[in-house]
Design a protein that fits this description.
Oligomer: single chain
Largest sheet: none
Number of helices: 4
Helix content: over 70%
């Protein structure tokens, strides 16, 4: 092992001898040149990174602008929809107020007929005689109301 480590030591010392042969001026020139090359490379990287950042900002801006425009259109459509609903409400109230009395009488007549049919059914199904007679009275009253509406 000692022999091998000696050989390695000799190689290292030979390399050190070669490097000491270079003059100090040459070392300074190469280090200055390396520094300048590094600065140029870093400026190119910085330029590329800044251009990419600008491109990303532009893409983000146009994407957000499109989304905001879509939201604006939706809000406007909700405003129009609200106006349509209020117009329909006004028309409904107006139609109810202007409903002819003939239609109101027809609706009341149909309701009374329905009630009379139900009362007749109940009168036929009840077993208690007192309740049957009361249902017959209800039927007579409904018939009187119906005749009053027909006049």
């Amino acid at each position: 092992m000692s022999v091998e480590s000696g050989k390695v030591h000799k190689l290292e010392s030979a390399q050190l001898d070669n490097s000491s042969e270079h003059s100090g001026d040459e070392q300074e020139a190469t280090s200055v040149q390396g520094l300048a090359d590094t600065q140029k490379d870093m400026s190119k990287v910085a330029l590329i990174v800044s251009l990419l950042a600008v491109i990303l900002l532009v893409i983000f801006f146009f994407g957000m602008n499109r989304n905001i425009a879509g939201l604006t259109n939706e809000v406007k459509s909700f405003g129009l929809l609200r106006e349509d609903v209020s117009n329909l409400d006004q028309r409904m109230v107006q139609m109810q107020q202007e409903m002819p009395s003939q239609i109101k009488k027809m609706i009341a007549h149909d309701l009374i007929n329905e009630m009379a049919m139900k009362a007749a059914y109940l009168g036929n199904t009840l077993e208690n005689e007192v309740q049957r007679s009361r249902m017959q009275e209800v039927l007579r009253t409904l018939k009187e109301v119906r005749e009053g509406l027909e006049q």
